[in-house]
Predict the 3D structure of the following.
Amino acid sequence: MRSFARIKVRGIPLWGWAAAAVLYVVAAASAAAFAWQRSIESIAEVGSHRLDLYAAALRSELGRYETVPGIVARQDSVRALLHAEPGAARAALLPEVNRYLEAVNGDTGGLAVDVIDRQGEVIAASNWNQALSFIGTNVSYRPYFLDALARGSGRFFGIGTNTGVPGLYFASAVLDAGKPAGAVAVKVSVDAFESAWRSPGEAAMVVDGNGVIVISTVPAWKFAALTPITPERQRQIEASKQYAGRAVALLPHQKLDRWSASARFARYPDWTRPGHDKRFLELSRPAPQAGDSLMVLLDVEPAMRQLRTAFAFVTALFMIAGLYALYATQRRRAIAEKLKGQDALREANDHLEATVAERTAELTAANAAMQREIAERARTEQELVHAGKLAVLGQMAAGLTHELNQPLGAIRTLSDNARSFLERNQQPLAIANLERISKLVDGMAVLTGELKTFARKSDVQPVAVSLDDAVAHALLIYEARLRDKDVQLDVRIPAGTTVWAEPSQLQQVLVNLLGNALDAVADEPQRSIAIEAHDADQPGRVLFSIADSGTGIAPEVLPHLFEPFVTTKPRGRGLGLGLAITSRLVLGFGARIFASNRPDGGAQFTIEFMSMTETGVVDG
Ligand code: ADP
């Protein structure tokens, strides 16, 4: 049930459609019924009004002629005529009576006025001088004559037996000594009514006591019966020749539902369209003449039109309302969709922004971490350089002590001897000693100069440095150890070879490499170190190498050789910083360093110094 209630068609729930449908049916039906009711009411009112008018017309017309036969019957000439015996006496009176009747008929505007004798023979008539004169006609079978003789007056609707013209007959008895001697009859035309009552979409009729239409605005319906004629009645009709011997046929029609006491719906032939029938509102009421009735048939098509209009109006209203509802729903949905889309977009945007912010934060953090690491590394490297320097200084200090102690001892001996030579007046010998002292002091000055070079703050500014000088200085530092260990030294550096480097740092590099080579050969039976330089393939480049006959670089060390704290030396002897610092310094010159083990044993370190134009890297 819940799911059913949720079903929507074009955005409107099913129950909404159902409610709208019910509402539509109710509204359309009510509107149509109301329109029909009102319309029929007004048609009935019109019909009723018509009936009033027709009844009044009939009454006045009948009233006008009603008295005429009575007046004529009292006329002396008329009474005399009927009193006279047929024959000469009557013939003498006849012209006067005929002329009188002619005058009366002319005054009243009727069809004819006759005088009828007791036997029912017309003996005088207003149309005495016309071809179709009634004189001589026997009307004894006519009900108006019989009624006049029996009750003093008679009325009758019939068709003239001579003329075939329909009309209303009024009759009055002519009394002779209180007894009826004959009758006077007046015949009146009904044509006037028929033409006066004719109105489009409407039929008006007078139906007589037999149920036969005697006055009708529809000519074809005249003398048709509205009720079935019984055989007995048929005989009477034939006897009275009321309808001049015409066969009275039933008018095919069908009574439908009743609308009110005086109105009902009925289906009658449509006189405007032969072969079709139509629904009418039938109104009837008793006509002034006893036994007759007046009837109007009114077209209900206008009411049908009203009904259809009301129906169409309600339908149109509902369609407009429905279309508007659909439009409004669609619009609401479109707006909702749009808002949803905007929300989704905003959400996606927010998400994107959040992601971007997140990533940015991550990147920023990573960047900061990297910066820190770089700073850390730089600091570490600086520290390493410094530590390396200290280590070298330590080695240098040891070397220097050794180096200085020896000349100092020599100077002491030489100066002691010089004093002895002076005391013995051996001046030339004393001078020779002093000269040797001076030379030794020069050598010491060189050593201390080296110290100064190392101590100076390194400010990397590569310059052209004499490579052979640099190598000579480094060798001087290790002179004692080289000599102690009896190392075979082979130095081949062409005179005037210059390389691009920072002099003190180059010094440090050479000391490191030479120190390592010394360490490597120290405990070997064969101890040799070869130092060599030559121009490389490209102009301005110099290849420099130090090779030793030592143990060679351990295979596990080789891949990590230039990394800090990589060492194979016992604790206290090696920090594993030398090559790390060396490689860094070499890079600082814009140069490169390689290490390898030689095929015939021992290690070889090669530095490729770049030309001046190639070096661009300047770093502390
Ligand atoms: P340390 O000398 O303090 O150990 P280095 O960075 O100078 O630090 O050297 C690292 C290591 O490289 C040494 O411990 C040694 O194993 C190896 N090494 C360096 N030079 C040589 C060489 N000439 N022959 C053999 N091994 C060497």
